[in-house]
Amino acid sequence: MRLSTLVIAATLVPLAACRPPAPEATTEPAPLTATAPAVRDIHSFAEPHLVKVRHLALELEMDFAARTLTGTATLQLDWQDPAADALLLDTRDLTILRAEAGEANDHWRELPFELAEPDQTLGSRLTIRTGGQPALVRIAYRTSPAASGLQWLTPAMTLGGQQPFMFSQSQQIHARSWVPLQDTPMVRFTYEARLRTPPQVMALMSADNDPAAVRDGDYTFRMPQPIPSYLLAIAAGDLVFAPIDARSGVWAEPALVQQAAAEFVDTGRMIAAAERLYGPYRWDRYDILVLPPSFPYGGMENPRLTFATPTVIVGDRSLVALIAHELAHSWSGNLVTFATANDAWLNEGFTTYVEGRLIEALYGRERADLDRVIERNELRREFTAENLALQPLAIAQEALPDPDDNLTATVYTKGAWFLQFLEQRCGRERFDAFLRDYFEHFAFQSISTAQFRDYARLHLLGQDPARVSEAEFDAWLYQPGVPDTAPQVISSRLAAVDAAREAWQAGTELPEPAVTAAWSTQEWVHFLDGLPQALDPGRLAALDAAYQFSGTPNGEIAQRWYPLTVRSGYTAARPALAEFLGRVGRRKLVMPIYKALAATPDGLAFAREVFAKARPALHPITVGSIEAALAATQAPAAVPATPPESANGG
Ligand SMILES: [Zn+2]
């Protein structure tokens, strides 16, 4: 997923004073000669060492009025242990109606099952007593209207206002809220689905969507490549298609589809650039589904159908790194997948690295470096003395009870920075060849950090040990902070922004519109990121008059500007701020604003008022985050960190 969550909190150390904590090992590196240890996923009840799901067949009926999916999931099983006689599945808030074993002659034998008391993080373990080892188990079930992985929108919450809308977000462990299954990335399966919907809506899945499909309320899908459960995806609404080129296009509501296709016009070139670097795109079509503004993340790399927030459609393609990111997941994440959330950097760090290479290939090094500088500043702000255990790339199991609690910038930016370090030391040509081989070697497998480490030691470091020492290599994986070996980037465009901002703070005029007219989103973000925590309201009024920050349609600017106005007591921005919070539900963009408001009694009262109005249109994931922020207000330091945008990052 994408993107990193920027947490702006009063407790954060100012940028200039923020340095990575001194390296201190919190996780013992595995012995250098070790092979990959047996991996266990503590975020799932499944026992894939006993039995693995190989194929899933769904038959579901979609009911917008009841906000439910009802039907059956048929699991094709590959038994691993001859003594096993039970199937353990993950569920959350599902009503299980029946379990059956498939036998010869299409006969189904009813099976006893137990649904355990729910665990708040993991949901309920479903134990099906198979009394043997049937090849098929079929479960009849119904989802809850409050399913954590689904959002149901009334017509009024959509752009067109005519049809209802629904969509899923399965990462990290929300697939279990709409399908009973082994909800762990360690298990991969192919799937097929038959879906019945109201006839006026178009339904799509992370599968073989047909751009020419006719709306009739009866849809079938096939996903022939094996995927982990978090890539199961479904959406339905007033969706139409606009092609970008022969193998890519955009699905969106009619009012937005042409604008979206124009913003994402470079998608085909991005796919071609990725294939030149990392080998063929293996998923057939690559389409983008633009969701309503309530989508809680930036993007989600559902295979063949990236789900994307409309907040990146800003008219100048300055935020299309999101598409580069989700597309990159077609190699890092969807093709080679982390085995557990503790190895999330294998998905997100690799993807952020590849994203940067694609931006570089299409738009040049300078543009890619803009994003790198901004992301690394964000990473430095994320490190605190309290989260040392989450700062290594490889997270110890006990440090991550909830898979959504990884530090975002660490997983994304530090992960990518590690690969940039390896690239610099080994040379780009050799490193590109290594990555291409890595994607090929582990294609359609789920792997751990230890497996990556073994592979890299053999195929990269072992080739020329003088380039990177094992101690240097392991410091990135197992120690907090960023090692001293990290290569630095400098952006001359951002240096010019620094100079303009500093001149204004020293008392000279603001940069002329003729200068700032050429600024992209990244320059504005950098301008705002470098301002003090609070300014005199009169100074903010001058900024606002010059650049019209209040009311900006650009969420990256809004999520920085509004918290600054709140901390500074510049209340003239409040109507525009309220309008933004009423319109946008992307968690990364709204949380810094709510957190800033929650820091004072007056701001808190205002935040509660705004939230009460916005709430009906918000995703359950965003609602949960806002409630936590507004509840923990007595001591601002105790405000919980916003979980990462992706369950990994969106
Ligand atoms: Zn991602």
Q: What can be said about this structure in brief?
A:
The protein has helices spanning 257-263, 267-278, 321-328, 345-363, 365-382, 408-426, 428-441, 449-459, 470-478, 492-505, 513-516, 521-529, 537-547, 555-568, 574-583, 587-597, 601-614, 620-631, and strands at residues 51-63, 68-79, 86-91, 95-103, 107-110, 113-115, 124-129, 136-142, 150-153, 165-168, 188-196, 202-205, 218-228, 234-237, 240-245, 248-252, 286-290, 299-300, 305-308, 336-338, 445-447. It has 650 residues and is an alpha+beta fold. Among the domains are: 46-150 and 166-230, Sandwich (Immunoglobulin-like); 239-319, Zincin-like (2-Layer Sandwich), CATH 3.30.2010.30; 331-478, Neutral Protease Domain 2 (Neutral Protease, domain 2, Orthogonal Bundle).
What does the model show?
- The protein has 650 residues and is an alpha+beta fold.
- It has 18 helices and 21 strands.
- It has helices spanning 257-263, 267-278, 321-328, 345-363, 365-382, 408-426, 428-441, 449-459, 470-478, 492-505, 513-516, 521-529, 537-547, 555-568, 574-583, 587-597, 601-614, 620-631; strands at 51-63, 68-79, 86-91, 95-103, 107-110, 113-115, 124-129, 136-142, 150-153, 165-168, 188-196, 202-205, 218-228, 234-237, 240-245, 248-252, 286-290, 299-300, 305-308, 336-338, 445-447.
- A hairpin with a 4-residue loop joins strand 18 (299-300) and strand 19.
- Helix 3 packs across helix 4 (345-363), helix 4 (345-363) crosses helix 6 and helix 12 runs parallel beside helix 14 (555-568).
- It starts with 50 loop residues before the first strand and ends in a 19-residue tail after the last helix.
- The structure holds zinc ion.
- The site of zinc ion (ZN) has 11 residues, from helix 4.
- Residues 1-2, 301, 325, 329, 348, 351, 646, 648-650 line the site of zinc ion.
